[in-house]
């Protein structure tokens, strides 16, 4: 009897430990929160000035830009796609908000609207080609990326334009000590989270991402919601581009290249599965903060941008491997525990 009680207690303890490690390493939203807290705790030890007010205020606008762009990427990944047109979308949005105002004399509000609506239309085209013609998302978005980059170069004649003063003043401004760009990012994430969790549209997007067949069986218009995801992603990229253009004033033509890998990494770190399903908006925003602070920390210790990209790729690879390995280890532990308990009962 004592042996059976001991075995039962050991099994319960092992189950708790397994559950803890599964939550920490096997996916979900907890890991990125833990990693972000650890990163900010370690930052002053590695680079003493990395958490000064000036350093944080210069980092947060870039975290906001990445967070909004990552939300766009997340919408596509939720539908089991991957958007490789991020560089072109970002360059297109920035080129529109700066060029339409400086070169074509558009009012600022019209340039802003164009920088959101036209990338959304480009995303809509992506979605239509993917859903209606069955072309792989990677191929479609890669082609769209080339088209948009070519368009930006043609419209600008190879010379970047400057952001309108009103946009630059706003994006560099703050409410108290909170940068305006960060406020916009929080609004986008909160509104997006409310739509995803509380609205019929959001729930249908999630259902389609989880299982196209099941969603179609209950009468959801699968292609409509998948196409909508690509269009909304384009709008998100446009908003991110406007904030970036305003903050740096004169964005390089092809600055968007450095946002492709980070947007994917932020989505994966945030807990959204590459196989689609439920979206994790808030955690994706936290992941964007983590990656931006990590980049700033690496710059502070002298790492070049190329090594920062390698670090981001390594982080992404570790997370993907952990999510693949942890369930396998968990199943192995369960099998061994079942075999041990069976032998104990027989004894």
Automatic annotation (TrEMBL):
Residues passing through the membrane, by range: 24-47, 53-77, 84-103, 109-128, 135-155, 175-196, 229-247, 259-276, 281-301, 307-326
A GO-annotated cellular component: plasma membrane
Record's keyword annotation contains Cell membrane: yes
InterPro entries for the chain: ABC_transp_permease
Entry keyword set: Cell membrane, Membrane, Transmembrane, Transmembrane helix
Cross-referenced Pfam families: BPD_transp_2 (PF02653)
Descriptive protein name: ABC transporter permease
Organism: freshwater metagenome
Source lineage: unclassified sequences, metagenomes, ecological metagenomes
């Amino acid at each position: 009897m004592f042996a059976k009680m001991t075995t039962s207690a050991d099994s319960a303890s092992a189950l708790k430990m397994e559950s803890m490690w599964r939550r920490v390493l096997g996916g979900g939203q907890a890991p990125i929160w833990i990693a972000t807290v650890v990163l900010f705790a370690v930052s002053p030890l590695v680079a003493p000035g990395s958490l000064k007010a000036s350093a944080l205020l210069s980092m947060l606008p870039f975290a906001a830009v990445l967070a909004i762009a990552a939300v766009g990427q997340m919408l596509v990944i939720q539908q089991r796609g991957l958007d490789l047109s991020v560089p072109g979308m970002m360059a297109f949005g920035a080129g529109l908000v700066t060029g339409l105002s400086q070169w074509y004399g558009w009012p600022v509000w019209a340039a802003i609207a164009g920088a959101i609506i036209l990338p959304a239309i480009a995303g809509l085209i992506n979605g239509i080609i993917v859903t209606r013609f069955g072309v792989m998302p990677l191929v479609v978005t890669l082609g769209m990326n080339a088209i948009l980059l070519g368009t930006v170069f043609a419209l600008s004649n190879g010379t970047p334009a400057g952001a309108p003063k009103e946009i630059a003043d706003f994006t560099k401004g703050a409410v108290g000590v909170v940068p305006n760009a960060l406020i916009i990012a929080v609004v986008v994430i909160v509104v997006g989270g409310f739509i995803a969790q509380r609205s019929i549209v959001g729930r249908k997007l999630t259902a389609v991402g989880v299982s196209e067949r099941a969603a179609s069986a209950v009468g959801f218009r699968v292609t409509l919601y998948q196409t909508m995801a690509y269009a909304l992603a384009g709008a998100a990229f446009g908003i991110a581009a406007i904030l970036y253009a305003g903050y740096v004033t004169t964005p390089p033509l092809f600055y968007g290249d450095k946002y492709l890998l980070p947007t994917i990494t932020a989505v994966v770190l945030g807990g959204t599965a590459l196989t689609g399903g439920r979206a994790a908006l808030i955690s994706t925003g936290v992941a964007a903060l983590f990656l931006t602070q990590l980049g700033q920390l690496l710059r502070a210790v002298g790492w070049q941008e190329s090594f920062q990209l390698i670090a981001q790729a390594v982080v992404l690879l570790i997370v993907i491997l952990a999510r693949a390995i942890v369930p396998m280890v968990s199943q192995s532990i369960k099998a061994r525990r079942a075999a041990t308990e069976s032998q104990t009962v027989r004894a």
